[in-house]
Design a protein that fits this description.
The structure holds two protein chains of two kinds. In chain A, 55% of the residues are buried. The longest helix of chain A has 31 residues. Chain A is built from eleven helices and two strands; from the N terminus they run H-H-H-H-E-E-H-H-H-H-H-H-H. By secondary structure, chain A is mainly α. By secondary structure, chain B is an all-alpha fold. Chain B is 74% helix and 0% strand. Chain B is globular. The chains are: A mainly alpha, B mainly alpha.
Chain lengths: 285, 331
């Protein structure tokens, strides 16, 4: 029973991190039609930025996390402005560009930071015990912070003017433009937000596990599974699917083996792609 | 004229081992093997427009299968390799029938998933693949017992080079022949405009599967050659990044052309040798080149995307979102 609760909590923690990654992927897809394979590289960039700020410059964790989100956001701005923008009329070119970006970013990370594994010093190091269940405080912190970010983002998209513009562009870019929405600005903004959330996910992963040049690959694959499950481009679907995948993952890791559980995830992903291409929760953004 | 060019190229590759320093012979063999796999990818991606991101996985499946058949079951290479190629052909036909319902980037993402699955199997099916440790002591193909052939010893690098060269020339000749047949014309028609091709009575699905299987078979041939040449295998050799590398190499050389895969594979090996750069620099340069290529080469940009995903000219950046079909599943 205690093990089960432990696994469920871990599942929620991972689900919230996956959610952060998946939102960026789903927005790239919803607004630009681009399958962004390089999104994992932004997760990695966020983790490296936070690692350097905390370890080398001794900047406190929260400040470093915020700074890393800012740095990666700026990086995302440049990447969107100078590469993806040119691929907007041909989404497959966006996919190709993102493949090139993985090469550039991951190898640049190896060159700049070396191939060794690193770890971000977590904000909390202890554990708390609730009714016999021992939980690492940092995990709880990651879950709370990620969930807050997700909720904040959701409200932003639903309530604010620019959030509504994003949904309008995803719905019908041409009509949105006729209504006076600057597509360039909205898509750029959405991409930057995706990168900022990816950086947050990177900091979270780096503080729980290790920081490596290829650390973005696994959560990115999860994000693909999630957005397929949730319906391409759907934000609400991505939220729900992220937690489902997080829970399934950690239960499978606890009771079967995590590697084989991954296969199961991919098979389900391919089957959904083929038989229910709009995803299980498919709907508009 | 063309015949002279071809003859010169074949002759050149035949005498190449005697021109270049001995050290490079190893690179030549690897380039030849790689080139077979990329030639296969060219059929699926360059000519038919299928963004198959799992070429290295088929190569890996074949490499493991052939190595294991010889090591565990004691089969001879000459039996194991053809068996492996046939099995990979059947596997790819099955996967093709299922996944080729998807078009455009949905197919790309799907093949991405397939290549992850293949990697996880290589890495975790420890009782068979020995997991991350990989497989050691794969034997080179045994000497034939028939008299004149018994002189050929494929454990010798030079002989192996010619063995690879013959298969490479055969693969290229096959593609040249294929593209002159009606089948080849049908493949190009599908690349240019799938719906138009269908309207003209081309059985799109059948030809796509055909292209996918052809591509996988060549990857399988390359995989068998690779396993018995290097004599060891690890899962890391067949990751998604390797598949993506092949795509980049093909596009650098020129997708949808006969010389493209040869040129690309040669550049892939020769340029870093000449520049003597660390792998990371080379990868960064590849990535940047690739991005610039996609963005700026006008024929590359438009031609490539049209080749890969049907004609969408006439669409502007503004209307792209407006007219994008929600999901392009099978028709």
């Amino acid at each position: 029973m205690i093990q089960l609760i432990q696994q469920l909590v871990n599942g929620l923690v991972m689900g919230s991190i996956y959610g952060l990654v998946a939102l960026g992927v789903t927005m790239s897809f919803g607004l630009m039609g681009i399958v962004n394979f390089a999104h994992g590289a932004f997760v990695m960039a966020g983790a490296f930025a936070a690692f350097y700020l905390t370890t080398l410059y001794g900047i406190p964790f929260l400040l470093a996390a915020a700074a890393s989100m800012g740095i990666v956001g700026a990086l995302g701005f440049l990447v969107e402005r100078y590469s993806f923008r040119f691929a907007r009329h041909e989404p497959i070119n966006g996919l190709m560009i993102s493949i090139g970006l993985i090469y550039v970013m991951e190898n640049a990370a190896i060159l700049l930071f070396g191939p060794e594994n690193k770890a971000i010093q977590p904000l909390f190091s202890g554990t708390i015990e609730v009714g016999g269940v021992v939980l690492a405080t940092q995990r709880i912190f990651v879950f709370v912070a990620s969930s807050l970010l997700l909720a904040f983002f959701y409200l932003y998209v639903k309530k604010t003017k620019s959030g509504k513009s994003m949904r309008a562009v995803a719905e019908n870019a041409f009509a949105a433009q006729l209504m006076g929405i600057s597509i360039d600005r909205i898509i750029g903004l959405a991409f930057v937000i995706g990168c900022v959330l990816a950086a947050a996910a990177g900091v979270a992963l780096g503080s729980l596990f290790v920081v490596t040049a290829h650390m973005g690959a696994a959560p990115l694959m999860k994000a693909f599974v999630i957005i397929t499950l949730g319906g391409f481009g759907s934000i609400r679907g991505a939220f729900v699917a992220a937690f489902i995948i997080g829970l399934v993952d950690s239960l499978a890791a606890g009771y079967v083996s995590s590697a084989w559980a991954d296969i199961f995830g991919y098979v389900v992903f391919i089957l959904i792609l083929i038989f229910k291409p709009k995803g299980i929760f498919g709907e508009g953004t | 004229m063309k015949a002279i060019g071809i003859a010169a190229a074949v002759l050149l590759s035949a005498v190449l081992p005697f021109i270049v320093p001995a050290y490079y012979l190893h690179m030549l063999v690897l380039t030849g093997i790689y080139c077979i796999a990329v030639t296969g990818l060219n059929v699926a991606m360059g000519y038919t427009g299928l963004a198959a991101l799992c070429q290295a996985s088929f190569m890996g499946i074949a490499a493991y299968a052939s190595a294991l058949l010889t090591l565990r079951l004691g089969l001879s290479f000459w039996l194991a390799a053809p068996l492996t190629v046939v099995s990979v052909a059947l596997l790819s036909a099955l996967l093709g029938v299922i996944t080729l319902r998807l078009v455009s980037h949905y197919f790309a993402v799907c093949t991405f998933g397939l290549s992850e699955i293949a990697f996880i199997v290589f890495n975790n099916w420890i009782s068979v693949t020995n997991g991350p440790g990989g497989i050691q002591d794969v034997q080179p193909p045994a000497r034939s017992t028939t008299y004149p052939l018994s002189l050929i010893d494929l454990s010798e690098r030079l002989h192996y080079y010619y063995f690879v060269l013959i298969l490479l020339v055969a693969s290229i000749a096959f593609v040249v022949w294929l593209m002159r047949t009606r089948t080849g014309a049908a493949l190009v028609a599908i690349r240019e405009d799938q719906e138009l091709a269908q309207a003209q009575g081309i059985h799109v699905m059948r030809y796509k599967v055909y292209a996918f299987v052809t591509s996988a078979v060549m990857a399988a041939i390359a995989g068998c050659l690779y396993a018995h040449y290097l004599r060891f295998l690890t899962p890391e050799m067949f990751t998604i990044m390797e598949s993506l590398s092949m795509v980049i190499v093909l596009l650098i050389g020129g997708a949808g052309t006969i010389v493209g895969p040869i040129l690309g594979s040669a550049i892939n090996v020769v340029v870093p040798e000449i520049l003597n750069v660390v792998p990371e620099h080379r990868m960064i340069a590849y990535g940047l080149f690739f991005i610039v290529f996609i963005i700026f080469v006008p024929g590359g940009l438009i031609g490539l995307s049209r080749r890969i995903f049907g004609d969408r000219s006439g669409r502007t950046a503004q209307s792209a979102g407006a007219t994008r079909a929600p999901v392009a599943a099978s028709r």
